[in-house]
Amino acid sequence: MTLKQVTRLLCAAAMSSALVSGATAQDKVVKIGAILPMSGGTASIGAHAKAALEVAMDIINNAHPELGSLPLAKNAGLAGLGGAKVEVVFADNQGSPATGQNQALRLITEEKVAAILGAYQSGITLTSSAIAEKYGIPFLTPESVAANLTERGFKWFFRTTPIAPDFVRIYDEFLTDMKAAGAKTDSIALVHDNTEYGTSVANTIASGFKEKGRGGVIDIAYAVNATDLQAQVLQLKEKKPDVVLMISYTSDAILFAKTMQSLDYKPPLLLADDAGYSDPSFIKAVGKLSQGVFNRSSWAVGPSGSPSAIIADMYKKKSGEEMDDTVGRQMQGFFVLVDAIDRAGSTDPAKIQAALKATDLKPGQLIMGYKGVKFDDKGQNILASAYIIQLQDGENYVSVWPKANGEKAPVLPYKGW
Amino acid sequence: MRRWIWLSVVAAFAIAYPLLLSSPFQQRLGALVLLYAIAASAWNIVGGYAGQVSVGHVVFFGCGAYAAMGAYAKFGLSPLFGIPGGIVLAVGLAAIVGVPTLRLSGHYFSMATIAVAETMRLIVTNTEWLGAAVGLSGPTVPRNIFDLSFLSALPYYYLFLAILAITLAITWWMTNSRMGFYLRAIKDSERAARSLGAPASRTKLYAYMLSAALTSVAGALYAMMFGFVDPESGLGILISVKILIMAALGGAGLLFGPLVGAAILVPLEEISNSWLGGKGAGLTFVVYGAIIVLIARFQPGGLLGLLTRRGKPKTDMSKTDTSKTDTGAGHAP
User: Fold this and answer.
1) Residue B324: what pLDDT?
2) Contact B252, B48 (CB under 8 A)
3) pLDDT value at position B249?
4) Residue contact A199–B132, C-beta within 8 A
5) Chain B neighbours among A 29-58 (CB < 8 Å)?
6) Across the interface, do A101 and B226 touch by the CB < 8 Å criterion?
7) Are B228 and A126 a contacting pair at CB < 8 A?
8) Which residues face A191 on adjacent strands?
9) Which ranges of chain B have pLDDT less than 50?
10) Which residues of chain A have pLDDT under 70?
11) A416: helix, coil or strand?
12) CB pairs under 8 A between A and B
């Protein structure tokens, strides 16, 4: 008799799947899908991004003349679509490439989104953008940096964030300027974890520095979420590099700061590659032990009353956190995508794709420190850039480089504690 | 005879499902149910019938997934060519791992399998040739039909259905063969089975190897459908747990148990994620956890076991089927 019961259960299951019904289309609403990690180990990233996109929706859908030259802010809704409002449909990728792809399919076929933004983790961006490519729906990643994403020959994939080759250029120019100011920058140690982010960024920097004629790169790897980093710090102590470049997530960055203090090691110049060092919890935990650390960031608050300062304020009210580089890049990517839809004057994917390809935003139209937004044939923003910021007082980063954007002059050597 | 009628009803429904529910998301959901049913049915051979609860089964899943993606990424072949390679790898690994660990009993065996899976995940994470932490991706644009990269879920659905049918047929054949009787005897009491002359170690090892081979096929199919594998999605412990829960929910040691478990849990996960995931509640995992607790507490035999037990008095009176035991485990319908 079991089979009869099996049939009943299967029927019940089928009915439950039938409940996944399509959403009804509303007038004058442009739907954009956002695939983000809302649960799992990086859930806080998703929560912050959600708050940032809600702030961006507020800016686009309501009139904000105080934001000046920022596109879409002045009037309510999208002028190009007769004042249509923008609605973001959030989807949880659960940190899984499979779930991310399923959600991309759902956003496209059930929610009928005009475009997709996502998906934080590079592996998930890879699988979910493959579905968008097959369906011919624009997919913009504001934050995934893996090099292979733009090497797949995709026609519907766009990326606004700076990537590893941009970092090489920024660090090279920064170190050249520091050398001119009297700092020694001959030997460089690259400290990185063994994740995709750590290894790929370290490899690109190592080969990029070699091309630019910077010899003496020391590679120091460690396992992510380390419980002990004494060996790595002792190695640094022994080799005495002029510059230590840290490519680390938050928990490891905190442990490095503590270990450096306990072993009394201070490199002459400590430079961090965003990630953990930009996390507000890093500053809370060990900011006072890391005074003078340099960091890469495309985000700088700017003087009060400036558009970026107003947005930072709106974000803080929404989320209770200070705005950081990651949410800034996500918000910027969203603005670029919506700006393209506005210019396309339509939710037709092909028209949005054409508008994205024609994107040419100037620095004054951005909230981030990019030199502009303009995509190459592969969909990569060729004008993506970043500032160098410094944690001078151990509490707040200030931008110190390039000189034109610097609030303060860089301070050397590294002070530590 | 009624058994065959119901079987054909189930089969007819499975074949007609994509025609009844034609939205792309629902068809994909159907394909995913079948995919997980294959993996859970494969686990069922060693976890359900032999009673050896392997929590590290993802290691075989990973063999298949990496072999399929490796065939494409490293040799430019169709991922299909990776399937035999994945099976060989998985069976070889099962033999190497199984000989020492299958001597362990109960929790110790489960712990050993976890250790093997985690070790493998760390090795792959640090192996440049296998894509390390970045993972391997499949063909982005299909070159021909053998790349199995389709827009529609329909081809996947029917491919998975065929392989599930083969998996279930192998399982059914196994349970009715000498090996099935040995396994049931070992599950009830290994010492008693040995004393009656059943070759316990060898039988368990064979079951483990068969299960590994089928799990690796599921892994290869998974990688082909999603076009990507990295250490977390191909060798992460959560996949083992998911497979195990599906089998346990439906009824471990029952032929159709894993299918029922997958048919309930996969839609439950995708739908709850679609409805609630965007709110950042993580509710899917709360539901998962609750189900584990409820099964462990009230129904260790699984849902099908519940129905079998409820329906038993009637069945016994009308058919006097003496082969049914009250554990609800260990026999085909």
Assistant:
1) 39
2) yes
3) 86
4) yes
5) 38-40, 43, 46-47, 50
6) yes
7) yes
8) A220, A246
9) 311-333
10) 1-27, 41
11) strand
12) 183
Asked if A103 lies within 8 A of B273 by C-beta distance, the reply is yes
Surface of A (188-217) touching B: CB under 8 A: 194-196, 199-200
Which tens digits make up the pLDDT trace of B147-185?
Answer: 777 778 888 999 999 999 999 999 999 989 998 889 888
* Residue A80, min C-alpha distance to chain B (Å): 28
Digit-coded pLDDT (tens) for B321-331? 334 334 434 34
Q: Which of A3, A13, A98 sits opposite B264 (nearest CB)?
A: A13
- The 10 Å CB-count burial string (b at 16+, else e) for A1-11 is bbbbbbbebbe
- State residue B291's pLDDT score: 74
Note the ipTM here. 0.81
CB contact residues (below 8 A), chain A span 345-384, against chain B: none
CA-to-CA distance for B156 and B153, rounded, in angstroms? 5
Residues of chain B contacting A40 with CB distance shorter than 8 Å: 282
pLDDT for res A26 = 41
Q: A-chain residues within 8 Å CB-CB of B25?
A: 20, 102, 105-106, 109-110
Contact at CB, A91 and B260, closer than 8 angstroms: no
A91·B233 Cβ contact <8 A? no
User: What is the value of pTM for the model shown?
Assistant: 0.82
Cβ–Cβ below 8 Å for B151 and A135: yes
Can you give chain B as a three-state secondary structure string?
A: CHHHHHHHHHHHHHHHHHHHCCCHHHHHHHHHHHHHHHHHHHHHHHHHHCCCCCCCCHHHHHHHHHHHHHHHHHHCCCHHHHHHHHHHHHHHHHHHHHHHHCCCCCHHHHHHHHHHHHHHHHHHHCCHHHCHHHCEECCCCCCCHHHCCCCCCHHHHHHHHHHHHHHHHHHHHHHCCHHHHHHHHHHHCHHHHHHCCCCHHHHHHHHHHHHHHHHHHHHHHHHHHHCEECHHHHHCHHHHHHHHHHHHHHCCCCCCHHHHHHHHHHHHHHHHHHHHHHHCCCHHHHHHHHHHHHHHHHCCCCHHHHHHHHHHHHHHHHHCCCCCCCCCCCCCC
Q: Which of B141, B228, B271 sits opposite A123 (nearest CB)?
A: B228
